[in-house]
Amino acid sequence: MSIWTRISEALSALANGEGLGAVFDRLRQPPERSVAFTIAVIALSAKMAKADGQVTRNEVLAFREVFQVAPEDEAAAARVFNLARQDVAGFEEYARRIRRMFEDSTGPICDLLEGLFYIAMADGHYHPAEEEFLDRVAEIFEVAPGDYRSIRARFVPDAPPDPYAVLGVSPDDPLDEIRKQWRRLVRDSHPDVMQARGVPPEAVKLSEKRLIDINHAWEEISAQRAA
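User: That's the sequence. What structure does it adopt?
Assistant: Structure tokens below.
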């Protein structure tokens, strides 16, 4: 059964005008977390689009790229997006419910935030409203400042990516400690590990981009230290 079939089933369970928040409350336990994760990215993307006032074609393409949305599954994805756009609940309420859903682990929360950055930057622009939105979501998600800086450094091109920020280390750290952090990030970014914490297989693109970024950062630091 595809993730989109399971999402359609989750949405069909909504009754009496309930919003998507009710879905988050019902999908708090594995193995349904992958369904909740996907719905959360779509829903918060819809709220983010509402924040900057537009949905660009590139953002739509980015979402399809991350989640490998087949033509026959577009209706399910569109329904989640439209429900979130129309829901009177604010994005902060969504973010709080999502944080409760993943309260036992910060990994899926960082994965989700990364997906939002991927979509926000799809048009090549980081709108001030998007920055304000993502700052607030990260705050509600209780993402550690170092983790947030690491994610942001990989996506927002307001300066060349700082390889130390990408790996979440300090330039003063010994190379052996930086190597350990790089290896930990590589391990945590493996598709099987990400799926075990709730990221659906359809979102493998997040893993691919993260591995490219952290490996490039390690290569850059290694070259600097060897010079």
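The chain has a mean pLDDT of 82.
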